[in-house]
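Meet the record:
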Amino acid sequence: MSASATAARAGWLNRSTVGIALASLFSDVSHELATAVLPVVLLALGSGPAALGLIEGAADGLSALAKLWGGVVSDRLARRKPLASVGYLVTAVGTAAIGLCTTWRQILACRVAAWIGRGSRSPARDVLMAEAADPRVWGRAFGMERAGDAFGAVLGPLLALALVGSGVRPQHVMAWSLLPGLLAFLAITGLVRERPRTTPPGPPRTFRAHIQGTSGAFRRYLAGIFVFGCGDFSRTLLIFYVTEHAQGTVFQWSGATLAIALYVLHNAVSAAAAFPVGVLSDRVGRRHVVIGGYLFAAVTTLGFGLLPATPLVLAFLFVASGIYIACEEVAEKARAAELLDEAARGTGMGLLAATNGVGDMVSSALVGAAWSLAPGRPAAGFVIAAALQLAGAMVIATGRRR
C-alpha cells in the first residue's frame, strides 16, 4: 500500500468511525425488524390502516422536529456523544416496548418516543463522524456509515421473516428488536472517542441566531436539497406501483411478492454502493456527486413513469434507484460538512435532516395526489417528481461552490 493510500485509510478508518457505522447497522436492524411486524401487531389489537397512518405520520413529523432540536442542542453542548448515546438507547427501548402494548394509543406513544430519540441523535452522530475523520476522506467515512444503515435495512426484514417463520409471535419479535438496539447503544458508548472541541460553545442563542450562524452557501445548498426532496418520494410508493402494475412474474413472484423482492434488492444495492460513492466523492468532489446523483435520479424516475413495468425493466430501475439513493445520502452529508464551520455543524446537520424529512412528506403527498387524479396511470406523478429532482440539481449547480 502506498504512503498516500495508507494516509487516506488512516484518515477515515478508526474505532470512532467504525463504532458509528456499527451503531447505524444495529439500529437499523432493530427498527426495520420492528417495522416489518408492526402492521400485524396492530391488526392483532383490532386496529387498521388508519391507526398505522396516524402512528407513522406523527412519528415522522416529530422526528423531523427532533432533528432540528438535536442539531441546535448539540452546538450548545461541550460534548455531543452523550446526546447521541441517549438517543440510541431511547430508540431501542421505545421500539421494544411496543411488544408490551395492548392498545394502538400505547403503540403511538412508544413509536413517537422511539422516533424522537432517533431524530435527536442524528445531528450529533453526523458531527461525531465528521470530527472523527479527516476532511479529505469524509466521503469514505459517511459512505461506511450509510452502508451500515442500508445493510441494516436489508437484514431487519429478513430477520423478521425468519423469526415469524419459526413461530415467534409478532409481539415477541418486538422484544427481539431490543438486542440489536442495545448493541447500537454500546457501539456508540464503547467505541466512539469524542475529540475535544477546538471552539468551545458560546453563550445560549436563539434558534434564529443558530440558523444565521450557517453560511449563505449552505442555506443555498439546503434550498436545492429541498427542491429535489419535493420530488424524492417514499420507496413505499414504488412498492405500491409494482404491486399494481407489474407485468409478468419472476420465480413465481408477482404483485406484492415481486415488490418486496425488488425492495430488498434496492436496499442491498444502496448498501453496496454507499462506500464506493463515498470514495468517488472524495476524488471528484462531493458537489459533483450530489448533482450527478440528482440528475441520475430524475432519469430513473422518468423511467418508472414512461417504461413498461416488466420484471427486467423494474429490476433495472430498482437497481438504479438504489444507486442514486446512495449518492444522495452519502454525498449530501459530506458536502454539508464542507460548508459548515465547527460551531454551526450540529445545527446544519439538523437542518439537513429536517429538510430531507419535510421534502419526503411533500413529495409522497404530491406524487400520490397526482397518481389518484389518474387512477391506473401514475406517469404524471413520476414526471412531476422527475422535474423537481432536475430543478434541485440545477439549484445546487448554479449555487456558490463555498
Remarks:
- The domain at 11-193 is CATH 1.20.1250.20 (Growth Hormone; Chain: A;).
- The chain has a mean pLDDT of 85.
- The chain has two domains: 11-193, 215-402.
- Residues 216 and 402 are 9 Å apart (CA to CA).
